[in-house]
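sry for the spam today, last one i promise. struct tokens for design, 352 residues
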């Protein structure tokens, strides 16, 4: 039965007896309940499943989420994630603190950026091996991006292959140890009286925090609810992130935000939902078909990302040629498909 909470004897003795359970909306890769215990406490119970994610290792995803949540539990002051109350690894069940979500407001982004920086700053070199390292674009992604330009009859500046090779080297996550959420999308962040808390750490990793700060510019690339953040709101959230990081670490944020945005641009898998990643060359599909994810199409996502990289690299020392190619590709896409829409802005979001 869907409302039967999978508690074994160990969980019953540790957490208590469930009296009421409500099955909540979640991804196909998990089942999530809001549970009222016999002592009237509310908890969240999540069971990681094999459903909806062909070939994925549910045990690995469970272990990864629990590890990410426990690292996030180090936060001093306001929490940045729910606390882990108990786990049952054989059944891939975790019992989490219930967090009252106050709901979204029009000014949600600064608090999100602050909590994201606080999350990222929780780990360091001593935590190497606690989670997988961030998995970024590969040489195959770079080749697919160049093939896309050829398919659209856009000339590739001679310096671009070299720039992409150097980009991949700079994106090596080895020197970085920030605690990355892995999918910090609207819906995976809960607004509380003490600040934002993140949930769904199945893709948690260690790497450069700029990879997730880039979400604001590049359009929330792992999210079905793609957004365009520009001008003053963008400047504010990036300043909040950087100042929070500096206050916690005593250092400036390492790395190059343009590199992080370029990383998302050349990854075709960032055009589709998780279940379809790693199946086909998604960039190769773009000239022939425009496939939707959520309210936004692949070409619309791609045009936005191309424009971002073009704008960020006009005077960039290492990505200038890639920027010129990005501008030309964006123009070609808009020329061939004039009905492509800009990404919605946060104040025009249709999903909440």
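last one done:
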């Amino acid at each position: 039965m869907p409302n039967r909470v999978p508690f074994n004897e160990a969980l019953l003795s540790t957490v208590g007896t469930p009296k009421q359970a409500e099955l909540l909306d979640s991804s196909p890769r998990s089942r999530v309940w809001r549970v009222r215990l016999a002592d009237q406490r509310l908890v969240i119970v999540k069971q990681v499943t094999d459903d909806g994610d062909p070939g994925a290792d549910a045990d690995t995803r469970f272990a990864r989420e629990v590890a990410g949540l426990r690292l996030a539990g180090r936060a001093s002051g306001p929490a940045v994630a729910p606390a882990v109350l108990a786990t049952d690894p054989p059944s891939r069940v975790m019992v989490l603190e219930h967090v009252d979500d106050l709901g979204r407001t029009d000014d949600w982004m600064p608090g999100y950026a602050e909590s994201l920086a606080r999350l990222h700053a929780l780990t360091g070199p001593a935590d190497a091996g606690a989670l997988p390292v961030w998995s970024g674009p590969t040489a195959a992604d770079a080749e697919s991006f160049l093939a896309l330009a050829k398919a659209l009859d856009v000339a590739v500046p001679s310096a671009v292959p070299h720039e992409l090779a150097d980009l991949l080297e700079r994106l090596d996550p080895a020197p970085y140890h920030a605690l990355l959420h892995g999918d910090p999308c609207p819906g995976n962040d809960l607004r509380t009286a003490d600040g934002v808390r993140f949930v769904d750490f199945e893709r948690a990793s260690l790497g450069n925090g700029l990879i997730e700060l880039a979400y604001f510019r590049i359009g929330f690339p792992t999210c079905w609810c793609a957004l365009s953040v520009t001008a003053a709101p963008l400047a504010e959230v990036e300043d909040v992130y950087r100042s929070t990081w500096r206050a916690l670490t005593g250092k400036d944020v390492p790395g190059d935000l343009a590199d992080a945005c370029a990383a998302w641009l050349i990854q075709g898998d960032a055009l589709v939902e998780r279940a379809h990643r790693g199946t086909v060359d998604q960039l190769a599909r773009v000239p022939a078909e425009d496939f939707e994810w959520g309210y936004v199409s692949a070409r619309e996502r791609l045009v936005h990302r191309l424009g971002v990289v073009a704008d960020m690299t006009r005077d960039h020392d290492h990505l200038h040629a890639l920027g010129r190619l990005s501008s030309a590709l964006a123009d070609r896409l808009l020329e061939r498909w004039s009905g492509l829409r800009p990404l919605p802005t946060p104040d025009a979001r249709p999903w909440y």
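Residues 231-249 form the longest helix (19 residues). ok im logging off now
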